[in-house]
Amino acid sequence: MTVDGKGRFKHAHDGVTDANRVINYVSWDDTKWSATRAGTGFFTVFVAGKDEQTSDAKVKDAATWLETNKAESRAASLLARELGTSSGK
Questions:
Q1: Which terminus has fewer CB within 10 Å in the chain: N or C?
Q2: What confidence score (pLDDT) does residue 88 get?
């Protein structure tokens, strides 16, 4: 993964390159997570369990959880906004 001049992560898929501030990944226990930069680290949120498919509804639920429970965090707000955009919120 690379970062563009605006600090966004560049994602390449199906011959198309997209850039945003979100990294989606699978952890060591096969759960699905999303993250964004927060200072010198990352702010993460759980998206789906090991045997669950990631869907727009799951991503939207993660964004809603962030908005409700972490409203005071700039990183959480940014991640919620990016997740909401990616889920068609």
A1: N
A2: 54
